[in-house]
Amino acid sequence: MRAVLQRVKHGSVSVAGKRIAEVGRGLVVLLGVGHADTPAAARALAEKTAVLRIFEDEQGKMNLSVRDVGGEALVVSQFTLYADARKGRRPSFTDAALPEAARPLVDLFAEHLRELGVPTQTGEFGAEMLVEILNDGPVTILLEI
Asked: 78 an active-site residue?
């Protein structure tokens, strides 16, 4: 399981011209699921996301988590995180889990973030989405479990 965490001032997702999710200060999490990923991996990655200290404290040091700052999360399924572009000109996505395997793990990841105290919204799985990200910092972290 792979996640790109972007610390944001604002993030939103629109589908077919309609905004379906929106967060203020917090994280936009682009989440990819691979063939070997399990519910345990989804929970572990959610826990790491909730407590990762990437927000600044009063001294300007990254000592606070999204929970510590009362931030929110927007989780967007992103199978393209499993792109393999080492050969040729078109990426291969064969390492990404099929939708029927990926969807429950994306949902579990988001639900576990909520259980950990992070208000969480999601994009629409499998939809063509317009994702707006106002990166704060910029701070972008790649996590892999």
From this structure: yes
Partners of 14 in the β-ladder: 19, 130
Domains of the chain: residue spans and CATH: 2-144 (3.50.80.10)
Residues 35-91: tens digit of each pLDDT? 999 999 999 999 999 999 999 999 999 999 999 999 999 999 999 999 999 999 999
Whole-angstrom distance, CA of residue 12 vs CA of residue 103: 20
Helix ranges (H only) for 1-145 are 39-51, 99-115
- 55, 79, 109, 122: which one is catalytic? 79
Q: Is 109 an active-site residue?
A: no
The model's pTM:
0.95
d(CA 53, CA 73): 14
Catalytic member of 49, 78, 120, 122: 78
Buried b (16+ CB within 10 A) or exposed e, 13-36: bbeeeeeebebebbbbbbbbbbee
Q: Identify whether 140 is a catalytic site residue.
A: no
Q: Which residues contact 98 (CB under 8 A, 6 or more apart)?
A: none
